[in-house]
Amino acid sequence: MKDPAIAMHTVADKVIVVTGAGRGVGKGMAVHLGRGGAKVVVAEWKRDLLDAAVAELEALGVTTLGLQCNVMERGEIEAMVAATVDRFGRVDGLINNAQTFRPLASMSEVSEDDIDVFYRSGVKGTVWAMQAVYPHMREQGWGRIVNFGSSMGITGGKGFGAYNASKEAIRALTRTAAREWAPDGIVVNCIAPAAADHHGDAGKQSEGYRIFMENCPMGRQGDPELDIGPLAWFLCSDACRYLTGHTFMADGGAFMWA
After folding, report:
1. What's the CA gap between 79 and 13, in Å, rounded?
2. What is the mean predicted confidence (pLDDT) over 100-123?
3. What is the DSSP string of 19-67?
């Protein structure tokens, strides 16, 4: 007989959607959840990354559904969730990881396009995805939503004005959804990660990377699968049943708050 306390920590057979799962943190979480027995929906807008991620997960024996989805288009998000429910009969978890980026710009130079791209892909994409899964999670009386913020938004990182604004908006939406949807059995939290994208070292030359390394007690960036993946696992399980509306700083202690 399974120990119920241990069973709380499982994600086995949970249907979990991960947006932007074609690379980096998204793929790391998808792999970690898949290794834990979750049925993983890879929602990725770039076809080559989508196919590669699905192939990698399937090679690990993970039950996987790959769906091309641009989070800047509400219709594509709704179609992705509908396809998930059509395939698996439900959706248990949603990880809103995907967001389109723009080059850094000082506050005096931030353009309307910068703001629009960050808001449409980050803020609106997050809202649309949450709204798309909500009826299904409400009906089953159980759901887990994980959104993505950033310590840059909290500290006001230079050059990240439009990005910071979008990430703080996502944290605000997280708190509101957590409060409104708790009676439906839906837990909503946020991760603010500092993790390396294993697709090159260009980022290591940036000023942001230098500042992060100077302030990180652990002296390294996180691993998408081994450092961010376990937190996503926890937030998609029953183990976090009494935690909602929070932002979890997965950054090696670089940003500490009470």
Report:
1. 22
2. 95
3. ETTTSHHHHHHHHHHHHTT-EEEEEESSHHHHHHHHHHHHHTT--EEEE
Contact 194, 251 (CB under 8 A): yes
Q: What phi, psi does 151 have (nearest 5°)?
A: -65, -25
Q: What pLDDT does 257 receive?
A: 76
In contact, 159 and 106? CB cutoff 8 Å:
yes
SS (H, E, C) 85-120: HHHHCCCCEEECCCCCCCCCECCCCCCHHHHHHHHH
pTM for the whole thing? 0.94
Report residue 195's pLDDT band, with 50, 70 and 90 as the boundaries. Answer: confident
- Residue-range domain boundaries for the chain: 4-250
CA 117 to chain centre: 18
Q: What is the pLDDT of residue 198?
A: 46
By DSSP bridging, strand 64-68 and strand 39-44 are: parallel
Report, as an integer, the average pLDDT of 102-110: 93
DSSP-based three-state secondary structure for 192: strand
Residues 53, 97 contacting (CB under 8 angstroms): no
Residue 206 CA to residue 218 CA, distance in Å, equals 19
Catalytic residues: 163
Give the H or E element holding residue 207: helix 207-215
User: What Rg do the C-alpha atoms of the chain give, in angstroms?
Assistant: 17
Mean pLDDT along residues 184-191: 98
| Averaged pLDDT, 37-55 | 98
Reply yes or no on whether the pLDDT at 24 is more than 70.
Answer: yes
Out of 3.40.50.720, 1.20.120.530, 3.60.70.12, 3.40.50.300, select the CATH number for domain 4-250. 3.40.50.720
